[in-house]
Design brief:
Blueprint lengths: L11 E5 L7 E3 L3 E5 L4 E6 L12 E7 L2 E7 L5 H10 L7 E7 L5 E14 L7 E15 L2
Antiparallel strand pairs: 1-2, 1-7, 3-6, 4-5, 6-9, 7-8, 8-9
Length: about 140
């Protein structure tokens, strides 16, 4: 059977404007995307009569994790301008709807708060930036 694997080329990161209907804008010059790293806590429910003295656990709260981006850092570019403006947002305005659109039309949809913007200007390589978003609530994977 032939593989269905694909490279990540043409995967896009988009941010919504909060309008109705919502319009999503693609962040420019993105070179790599790490989708949500979801996790679930476990809660120790062990008690004095747990069978065989084995610990028992129950499912705890879920966490949408973080989304990471790498992009070309262009000081006066649209991506830098948008990210710098977003870092100034506080309270509920800091959470925006996001999408990671894959080449086949599938996408992750989530609300996220910009928590990190780290530009780098090395002597002998391109300028780049790392960007981190904290997922708030449940991320959804919509299949094409």
């Amino acid at each position: 059977m032939a593989t269905s694997a694909r490279i990540g080329y043409q995967t896009l990161f988009k941010t919504g404007n909060g309008a109705s209907p919502e319009v999503f804008t693609t962040l420019a010059e993105v070179t790599g995307i790490t989708p949500p790293a979801m996790a679930r806590d476990t809660v120790d429910a062990t008690h004095e009569e747990s069978p065989g003295a084995w610990r028992e656990f129950i499912a705890g709260l879920k966490d949408g994790g973080e989304v990471g981006l790498e992009l070309n850092f262009i000081p006066g570019g649209s991506a830098t301008t948008a990210l710098m403006a977003e870092m100034d947002l506080d309270g509920p305005l800091a959470s925006k709807n996001r999408q990671i659109l894959f080449p086949d039309g599938s996408y992750f949809s989530f609300a996220g708060i910009l928590t990190g913007f780290e530009p780098d200007a090395p002597l002998d390589d391109k300028m780049a930036a790392s960007v981190t978003f904290k997922v708030t609530g449940k991320p959804t994977l919509v299949q094409a």
